[in-house]
């Protein structure tokens, strides 16, 4: 029940948090999911990528970013030698798939956010990449469009964050020309790599 708070410090491991997500009904998405999708990657990664919500492939497998968007995300990370085995942990604003992949409602985001805040605390990343407007809004509250703020370093709760395009947006905009979204993404990921080194 979303009215019952999840205090910071509730979980001592991602395993414990996952057990609660697997039986969560804090919002209506708990009624329609196949699997809660918590995260994947290195639990001690210096970079955390936060997406929106599981799609069909993720709902089926219980793992985030395993469909077409995920493959593109891995390719973008690999272009600067970043991997989910070593450098990156991936999670989402919402742990459960919204019907028809609609954008999660503010109520659904609010109900799920305490889990993500606990994930951030436990993984303790140096850098957080916010993919797409839902992730930016969910974490920082900034409602500006992603085109305006992508590539800018923000500070949130003492952590470095960068809004970046969502890979699904890049799938819909495949041009690699100078100044196109894909070109900008490759600039952004290089800035991330430079900040890590
Ligand atoms: N898109 C997201 O935002 N998250 C996923 O896990 C998959 C696709």
Automatic annotation (TrEMBL):
Domain Uracil-DNA glycosylase-like stretches: 38-190
SMART domains in the cross-refs:
UDG, UreE_C
Query: Which BP terms in the Gene Ontology apply to this protein?
Result: DNA repair
Task: List the catalytic activities from the record.
Answer: Hydrolyzes single-stranded DNA or mismatched double-stranded DNA and polynucleotides, releasing free uracil
Keyword annotations: 4Fe-4S, DNA damage, DNA repair, Hydrolase, Iron, Iron-sulfur, Metal-binding
Q: What GO annotations for molecular function exist for this entry?
A: 4 iron, 4 sulfur cluster binding; metal ion binding; uracil DNA N-glycosylase activity
What InterPro entries does this protein's entry cite? Answer: UDG_Type-4/5, Ura-DNA_glyco_family4, Uracil-DNA_glycosylase-like, Uracil-DNA_glycosylase-like_sf
Taxonomic superkingdom: Bacteria
Q: Where is the signal peptide?
A: none
- NCBIfam families reported in the protein's UniProt record: UDG_fam4
- The protein's name in its UniProt record: Type-4 uracil-DNA glycosylase
Which species does this protein come from? Nostoc edaphicum CCNP1411
